[in-house]
Structures are given as C-alpha cells and as structure tokens.
Design goal:
Dna Topoisomerase Vi A Subunit, Chain: A, domain 2, five-stranded antiparallel β-sheet, 10% strand, DNA primase DNAg catalytic core, N-terminal domain, 50% helix, five-stranded mixed β-sheet, DNA Primase, Chain A, 5 domains, 584 residues, alpha+beta
C-alpha cells in the first residue's frame, strides 16, 4: 500500500526548476538558479532555486519551501490541492481518492493519534518517564499545565508505541499513515518515529490531534543511538501540514479575540510557559519560520499580532526576516508589532525568572513594523558620510517598493521621507550651529582654550550655573547629553538611570535612550543620535545643542572615559539621583 506520506515525498522530488520556470525567468548561477521573486516586487534578483535539494528561497521577502509550498503560495491552493495538481501534471496516481476530504481513513488516523496521546501520557507517569517529568518540572511546568497540554513521553524502545497500537486493533499501515512510525528498507520493519522524546500533541482548530512534536531527552545514551534531531515533527500526512498549523492555536483563539492581542513566540515551551503565566493568546510555528499563510490566518484573530522571539542574535535575525516577509503583504489595518526581548532571555525564561509583569512590560513596548524597520536600518551601518547616508536612504525607501497595496506603500514612503527630511533639517541646523560656535569659541590645540575661556574656567561656570540656578529639566538634559557623548556609560549606570522618576516629558526620552542602549550595547553616538530623532525627540536634541556650553564639557574630544564617568556621576548627584555615600 502506497501511503499518503510516501506520495507526498514522491511529489516533493519532482523537478522544481521547470515547474517554477513556468512563471519565473530563471538563470543558472553556480549550483543554483536565480530570478525575480514572484511574491514581491523587485528589480534585482533575490529569488534562488536549488535544483538538487528541491528548495526555493527568496532573500528579499523570506518566502521558501518545496515545490508543493511554491504551488500553494503562487496559486493560492491548500496542501491537498497543491499535491493533487502536481500529481495530475506528472500523471502520478493519488493513493486513494478519499484522501481529498474527511473520510473513513482520516477518521481512523484521528483515532490512532488520540490513542497514541493517551499511551504517551500514561508513560510520563511511569518509572521510565521520571527523567522526562523531572525535565518538565525543571522548566517550571505545573501538573495541571502538563495535563492541559496533554504532554507525554515515549521511551527508547524501538516499537513500544507500535506494539501498543497494534494490540489496540490498528494496522501497521494506518499507524504509519498517521506519521507515528518509520519504515526500514534494510530490515523491512516499522519502528517508532518518536523514540526517547517528550511528546507535544499538536491540536487543530477543530480540537483534534493531527500530529506531534517530539523533544529528544538525552538520557540512557539516546544521543549515541542516533535518534535524530533534538526536535522532530510528524511528517506530512492527510491531516497534518506543518506550514498550515500553529502550536497552541486552538487554546489561543477565544482569548485572542477577547483581549484583542495575539503573541507569536518561537517554540512549544514558550507557548506552554506563557499560557501557564496567564498569556493564553500565545502561539508558535512548528519548528520552522512562520510563513505568509500563517500571518494571513493570524489576521483573522487580530489586526496586529505581536512577534516576541528570543532575545539573542538568532531571535533578532528571525524578527528581521519576518519583517521582510510581511512587508509585501501588508494591508490597510493589517500589520505586525515586534517585541524585543532582553538579551539572553526567551519569553518562557523571562516569565519563569522575572514574572508575568516583566513580559507584560516587554509587550507594552512593542514597536510597530514601520518603526522597527526604520530602527534596524538606521542602526545597522554608519551614516556619517554623504555616500553612506545616501545608501541608507536608498535602502529604506526600497523597502517601501516591496509593498503590494498602493495605499499602504504610499503611507510608508511618505512616513520615511518625513523622517529623512527631519534628520536632514536637524543635521543642517546642527552644522550651522556648530560653525557659529566654532567661529566664536575656536579650539586652540596648544592651551585648550575656547576663545577667551580656558576649559577649566568654562567648567567652573557650568557647575555654578547648574548647582545654583539649574532646574531639574536642565540637569536631566545634562544626563542625556553625557550619555549621547559616551553611550558605553550605560553599562555601569543602568540601574541608577532606570530609577529616575520625573514628570518632565524628557523622562520619556531618557527611558527610550536607556532601553535602546541596553539592547544595542555597541551603539555609537551617531547611531544613538539618529535613534532619538527617529523617536521624535528632536526638540530635546535641539535643546542640548542650544545649551551645550552650560550642560557639557567644553573640551570633550580630549577627555578620557574616566573623565566622562566622573561627569555622569556628578550629574546624577546634582539631580539628587544618587546618595552622597555612593560618591566615588
């Protein structure tokens, strides 16, 4: 009997280049073929097809997958429809006509998956499941959470699940069709696909188990027995296509509509940990990057799902790739938000160690997509020369050309043009102001004087002004100005700076500045300056420039890091933000 999973594998082995070449003009480039992506507008080819691997990928919008995924995306087909269309094109018989809709075979698959779930749940409470239970408890899961998500365990035996299911009356063929076993050509026998793994049942929107995710627990030499990758999903079956499923969606649906909020995280444990902490609106893709179909489906629940990936380099890159994936398909009122996790944390770890309020704080500070793209681009490279600044403008405006909806495209273009114009106006003002100051307070390299003032005299005047007549506003301006000159000081003074409480609007600028520096530890003064302008704090930046003589050291370019540290500590003391006993 040819199973559906065997049929799918046969379809995926079909020549991908001729098929995609029907719509995309491809040319060979090394081992790959390249062309203009059919899923977003572009002038330079970023779409690549690997003939040997049967895989396509667009470096521009992130679209990727097999020949089946291309058919689904390009022709707006379901998984079943795409496989049927490809089969018809190549005269490949579909295993059973009944596979096209719910039928007795699919009903049997649902039954066998349900029985497998019961069996794995029972093993978790037995002696062989103690290491798995210990792992789940170490991850902070409560008994009721483990029960709610129907987590289980499958031991290292090669056929324990298979034997149980056959003894329960199911044939080896239907068990294999459900994706629970792997067939060995060498021994001509079936054996359990998920051996030595914690089992995560995947539940459909119709509250049916359609597959599993398995997390390898490295005990009893499982690693040396070649049980496969750390995480393993069910294969494609008549009821399961991982690109069309989100883990936790069944539990998320009602809450998301009530809260009008939806959180997308990276993995199973993130979803489970967040649900346990009260964030029932969390879902995750199944071990692969989220695709446009899944984004479109999330928009049925909320207008702007929050993307909350891990706070490491891989998580940030995943957010950037997702932004590139989403921007072509933006619609009026439909977008995403991006929440940036603290460095080294994933959502599950954050709620476990810092509590639900810590995650809520991260979610509340989510950026809209337009601001996220702007910030990523403007902080990615230097823009300190005309050529680099022109390069940045070209990149950021090119992003808008990928948007398919004309009204949204126009809105993005106008927004970025306004931001660019504001920075250019600010730069012109700063250059003009600097030239004027340079004329009246020119630097003498021999005695370090500014016009008729020595640096020491200017410093004395500044201290006197701030101590005697300077308001809280100017003292906070000084703190911000010093941080703009020496961003690296955030590492030592983050806690004191974060404790500042003020009713002045400059407080928001200071909070934005602190958050940016904590998340971009290598940022330089120029990047920080542009970030503040992009956040709309240009008035305060103007004020710092206007009152620079009163606020900041006159001979800053010639001073050491230790000098600036002393200056910042003094500024905090003057604003009554540190205790005298902490004075260095």
């Amino acid at each position: 009997m040819v199973t559906f999973s065997d049929f799918v594998e046969q379809i995926k082995q079909l020549p991908i280049v001729p098929f995609i070449g029907r719509w995309v003009k491809l040319r060979r480039q090394g081992h790959n073929f390249v062309g203009l992506c059919p899923f977003h507008q572009e002038k330079t080819p970023s779409f690549s097809v690997n003939e040997q691997k049967g895989f396509f990928y667009c470096f521009g919008c992130g679209a990727s997958g097999s020949i089946v995924d291309f058919a689904m995306k390009h022709e707006n087909l379901s998984f079943i429809q795409a496989t049927q269309r490809l089969a018809e094109m190549h005269n490949i018989p579909v295993p059973n006509e009944q596979y096209t809709s719910t039928n007795p075979i699919q009903k049997k698959i649902f039954e066998v998956l349900e029985e497998a779930t019961h069996f794995c749940q029972s093993l978790l409470s037995k002696p062989s499941g103690r290491p798995a239970m210990a792992y789940l408890e170490k991850r902070g899961l409560l008994a009721q959470t483990i029960t709610q998500f129907r987590l289980g365990w499958l031991d290292n035996s090669s056929q324990s699940l298979l034997k149980h299911l056959t003894q329960s009356g199911y044939s080896q063929e239907i068990i294999h069709e459900a994706g629970l076993t792997t067939y060995s050509e060498r021994t001509q026998t079936y054996y359990d696909r998920f051996r030595g793994r914690i089992m995560f049942p995947i539940i459909s929107r119709q509250d049916k188990i359609i597959g599993f995710g398995g997390r390898l627990l490295e005990i009893e030499n499982t690693a040396s027995q070649n049980f496969g990758p750390k995480y393993l999903n069910s294969p494609e079956t008549t009821v399961f296509h991982k690109g069309d499923v989100l883990y936790g969606e069944f539990l998320m649906a009602k809450t998301a509509r009530i809260k009008k909020r939806l959180i997308v995280v990276e993995g199973y444990m993130d979803v489970i940990g967040l649900h346990q902490a009260g964030f029932n609106e969390a879902v995750a893709p199944l071990g692969t990057a989220i695709n446009t179909q899944q984004i479109e489906r999330l928009w049925h629940y909320v207008d702007e799902p929050i993307i909350c990936f891990d706070g490491d380099h891989a998580g940030i890159r995943a957010s950037q790739r997702l932004a590139d994936l989403v921007i072509p398909i933006l619609k009026p009122g439909k977008s995403i938000q991006i929440a940036t996790m603290p460095s080294g944390y994933d959502p599950d770890l954050l709620v476990l160690t810092q509590g639900a309020n810590a995650l809520e704080h991260v979610l509340q500070k989510s950026q809209n997509l337009a601001d996220f793209i702007w910030q990523q681009e403007i902080t990615a490279t230097k823009t300190d020369t005309p050529e680099r600044w022109a390069g940045f403008k070209e990149r950021i405006l090119k992003k808008t050309s990928d948007i398919q909806h004309n009204d949204v495209k126009s809105a993005y273009y106008n927004l970025y043009q306004t931001k660019i114009s504001k920075i250019q106006q600010q730069d012109n003002l700063s250059n003009s102001t600097f030239s004027t100051r340079k004329k009246h307070y020119s630097i003498n390299s021999n005695n370090r004087t500014y016009g008729s003032y020595r640096a020491q005299e200017g410093e004395a005047i500044r201290k006197s002004t701030l101590n005697q007549g300077g308001s809280e506003y100017f003292r906070l301006l000084r703190v911000v100005g010093l941080l703009m000159m020496k961003p690296m000081l955030i590492a030592k003074y983050a806690e004191e700076l974060s404790s500042i409480e003020t009713m002045h609007l400059i407080g928001q600028m200071l909070r934005d500045l602190i958050d940016f520096l904590l998340e971009n530890t290598n940022a330089n003064s120029e990047q920080l300056h542009r970030f503040l302008l992009s956040k709309g704090h240009d008035n305060f930046v103007d004020e710092i420039n206007k009152h620079r003589l009163m606020l900041l050291p006159l001979d800053a370019d010639h001073q050491s890091d230790e000098f600036f540290e002393k200056q910042l500590h003094e500024a905090l003391e003057m604003a009554h933000l540190t205790k005298s006993s902490e004075k260095k």
